[in-house]
Amino acid sequence: MMQELTMSGTKLTPVIKVDDEKCVNCYACVAACPVKYCMDGTGDAPKINHDLCIGCGNCITSCKRGARSFFDNGDAFFRDLGRGEKIVAIVAPAAASNFEGRYLNLNGYLKSLGVQAVFDVSFGAELTVLSYVNYMKEKKPSLVISQPCPAIVTYIELFVPSLLPMLAPADSPMLHTIRMIKEYYPQYRNHKVAVISPCIAKRREFDETGLGDYNVTFITIKGQLEKEKKDLASCKAMEYDNPEAERAVTFPMPGGLLRTADREVPGIWEQTRKIEGPEAIYPYLDHLADSLKKGGHQSVSFVDCLNCEKGCNGGPGTGFWEEPQNELEYPIQQRAVEAEKKYTLKSQKKSRKELAKVLNKYWKPGLYGRNYVDLSGNYTIREPSPAELTEVYKKIGKYSEDDIYDCNACGYGSCKRMAKAIFNKLNVPKNCLHYNLFLLNKQDKLAELNVEMKKQIGKSLSVIDSINSLVDVVSSKMAKQSESVDHSSAAVGEMVSSIHKTSEVSQKKRDDLQGLVDVAARGQGSMRETIQAVEDIAKSVDGVSSTIKLISGIASNTNLLSMNAAIEAAHAGDAGRGFSVVAGEIRRLSEDTRANSQNISVTLSNIIKGIKVTSTRSGETENHIAQMSSEIHSFAETMAELISTFGELSSGSTEITSALENLKALSSEVKISYNEMLNMTLTLRQALEELSAVAERSTAD
Q: Which GO BP terms, alphabetically (predicted)?
C-alpha cells in the first residue's frame, strides 16, 4: 500500500549528509546540484534542505574533499542479520559491473550472512518493460516518461508536478521484484527486503510506496567486506532464486530500457528521446513542462531518462562515478550476451516465446501499478519581483547589465539564480566572486585614501583637543552658573514665601475692611433714621405747643368765666355761695392750668431748641459719616486692588519658582550632557587613534 503524503510540509528522508570539518565551502556541490535551492549557503558549509533534495547524489560525485556522503541502511541490515531477522535480498543488475566477474559470489556472501534468498532485479526489469508495453498498447498515451530513476521521480513530484500524468504508472524494476516476491514467493512474503543498490535515492521510493526495508549500497557492501577482510572470490558463486533475465540485464546502462523494449516493440527507438545526466535531464523536463503547458508539439512519445550520466553502473552508491564508461559497461555487455544465449534455442523467435512464457507466469494486470504524489507544497522559494531583484543586485555590487557576468563561480550558473538565493536567505553576497573583486577594487581605492584619512584624523584629533579645552571652560562657567542659580533660587524662594504670607494676611484684612465698609454704611443709614425721627419729634412738639396755647387760652377764658361766676354768686348771696366755691376752684384750676401750660411751653421751647440743635448737629454728623463712609469705601477699593496685586504677585512668584526649578533641572541636565559629551569626545579621540593605527597598518600592508 502506498504511503499517504500531503501536498504541503511533506518530510522526506535525508539521503545525503555533510561533514562540515571537511567542507571548504568551494560551492562545487551547489554547481553540481540540479535543484540549487535545496542548498543553504549562508554558513561556512552548505547545508541541505532534505525536503527539496531529490537525492541525485551529484553533489557527492562532485566533492573532491569527501565532505559529502550518503545515508543508507547498511548498519541496520547487518545488525538485524546478526539478530536472526528473516531477510531476503534483491540485487541491482549494476552488481555485474561493480563486482566484475564475482556478482554471483555476492549472492553466496549474502547468504553466508543469513540472507535466505537473493533475487535478480534484472528479472524485475523484464517485468517492468512488460508493464510499460501493456500500458502503451492499451491506453495509447501521447507521452510516457520512464520512471526507474527515483531522483527523476522526486524531481517531477517536487518541481514539475504537471508532468506527473506522463510518468509511467508502473513500478520500477526494484519494486516489480519486491511485489513479485510478495505475490509469487509466499514463503518470503513476510520477510524483510534488503535492496543491494547503486542508488542512494531508492530510500525515497521505498518510503513513498511502503516497499523495501533496507537500502544497502554497493559501497557499504564493499566496506563490510574490507572490514571482514574477505575477498568475494572466496565466497561460493550462487545463482539467483528467480528465473533468469534476458536483455534487461542491460538496464543499468544508458539505453538499457530501450534495448529491452525494442524486443517487444521493434522500432521504439524512433519515437523515443533518450537522455541522461543531471545537466541534461532536468532542464529538459522543465522545458518539456513549459512546452506542454503552452500546447507545443511533441516529436516523441516516450522519454527514456536516467539521472546518472553513466547509468546505474556509475551511481552515487557505487564509488565508480569517475570510472570510464566503457569499463563500466563491458561486464554488463558480456552478461547480456550470455543471457541472450540462454534463451536462444534454434531461432530468435522461439527464444522470445520462451521468455514471454516465463514472464507471463510472474505478471498480471494491476499488480505492478504505481501512483505518484504531488510534493510541490515543499517548494516555498519565492521569485523576487524586478524591483526586489534590483535591490539584491545592488547588495552584490551589480548596478548595470555590464555587471551581470553569469560566471558560475557561485555555483548557481547565473547571477539571477544567485540573487534569488540571496533574496530567499539561502546565500550571502560574500559568496559572489565578482562581489569580492568589487570589494577588492574598493580596497585599492581605500588604500589611496588611507594617507589622506590619516591627515584628516590628525586634524580631527587637534580639533577634539580644542573642543575639550572649550568644554573645560564651559564646564567651569556652568559650575558658577549652577551655583548662582542655586543662590537665586533660595532667595526667590524666601521672597515667594513672604509674598504668599502677605497675600494671605491681606486677604484676611480685605474681609475685615469689607466689614468696616458695611458698618459705616449701616451707621450712615441709622443716622439718617435718627435725623428723621428728630424732625418727626420736632413736628410733634410744634403740634403740642399749639395745643398748649389752646389750653392756655381755654384756661384764660375759664378764669374769666370763673370770675364772672364769682361775681354772679356774690350777687346771689347765700344761694350762690356754693356756686361761688365752685367758681373759685375753677378759677384756681384755670390758673394752675395756665401756669403749667406756660411752664410746659417754656419746657417745650427749650426742647424744640434742643431738638433743632440736635437736628443741626445730626445733619453735620450725617455729612461727616457720609464723608467717612465714602473714604472708607475708597480705601476698601484701593486695598482690594492692592490685595489683588498681591495675589497676582503670589501666582507670578510661583511661576518664577517653577521656572527656577526648571532652570536648576536644566543646569543639572546640562552638566550630565557635558559629562557625556566629554566622554564621547574621549571615545571619539580613542576611535580616531585606533582608526589611524588601522590606516597605518593598511598602508603598510
A: chemotaxis; signal transduction
**Residue 523 CA to its chain's centroid (Å):** 86
In a domain, 1, yes or no: no
C-beta contacts of 552-557 below 8 A and 24+ residues apart: 552/593, 552/594, 552/597, 552/598, 552/601, 554/593, 555/590, 555/591, 555/593, 555/594, 555/597, 556/590, 556/594
User: Scanning the structure block, which residue is given the C-alpha cell 563561480?
Assistant: 409
Q: 652, 670, 673: which is closest to 662 by C-alpha?
A: 670
pLDDT along the chain (701 residues), means of 10: 40 95 92 95 93 96 93 97 97 97 98 98 98 96 96 98 97 98 98 98 96 97 97 96 96 95 93 95 96 85 96 96 94 94 67 88 96 96 96 93 91 94 95 86 62 65 69 66 66 65 64 66 68 67 66 70 73 71 73 72 72 68 69 68 65 65 68 70 71 64 57
34 within a domain of the structure (yes/no): yes
| Grid coordinates given for 415 | 547571477
CA-to-CA distance for 376 and 485, rounded, in angstroms?
Answer: 76
The boundaries of the domain holding residue 299 are 16-378
Predicted TM-score (pTM) of the model is 0.65
Cell of 595: 401756669
Same domain assignment for residues 326 and 357: yes
Helical axes 121-139 vs 256-264, angle rounded to 10°:
60
